[in-house]
Amino acid sequence: MGFFSNLFGNKQVHTSTNTQKWDEAYFDFEDRYEKDCNKKVDRIESIETNGIDPDKNIAGFKKQLELCHELEDFCASHGSGGAAYFKENYYFMYENIQKEMDNYIKYEYEEAKRDFEEEKADQKAVKSVSQKVLKEIRNAGGSILQTELKKLFSESELQYYNRVITRLADAGKIEKYKSGSRVAYKTK
């Protein structure tokens, strides 16, 4: 059996009296604890599992599973009505989350990890080139011709150059201006 087998074994004898007691316990639990259960479900559903970082996604799935266990324990701690309420309303959640995590690991994780690592490397390179642009403009006395600035960068750094210049200008850190017929930059 699976995750919830301990709660729902074949211990219940289904007579009309037992069914009536079961129903009363179910509705009593629902009246008292439905809001608490809904808060717990909202917390489960609020956990991010579709972000950029695949390791954080896996951690999110694991946290959701942990919170499902807590919901199950909460319901079960309030007797047969809570156990029945959990089975009726939340039994599927754990299995669905587990399936989603298994499918993510099997079909998406490796590609997502590769893409994430590439994005991190790209961001690191952009940051490095940004810092170098600002440093070189300052070292040149606060302004520099674009042609002179580009000469200071390696071929691999130049692939980020235009994006960096645009971001720095948009952020108000540098200003583009004409120096005769040439383009120059100065720090602000």
Give me a quick take on this structure.
This protein has two domains: 16-89, no CATH class; 115-187, Orthogonal Bundle (Arc Repressor Mutant, subunit A), CATH 1.10.10.10. The chain contains six helices and three strands.
Q: Any overview of this molecule?
A:
By secondary structure, the protein is mainly alpha-helical. The protein has 2 domains: 16-89, no CATH class; 115-187, Winged helix-like DNA-binding domain superfamily/Winged helix DNA-binding domain (Arc Repressor Mutant, subunit A, Orthogonal Bundle). The chain has 6 helices and 3 strands. The protein has helices at 16-45, 54-76, 79-89, 91-139, 146-151, 155-170, and strands at 143-145, 174-179, 182-187. Strands 1-3-2 form a 3-stranded antiparallel sheet. The chain starts with 15 loop residues before the first helix and ends with a strand. The model is unreliable at 1-16 (pLDDT under 50).
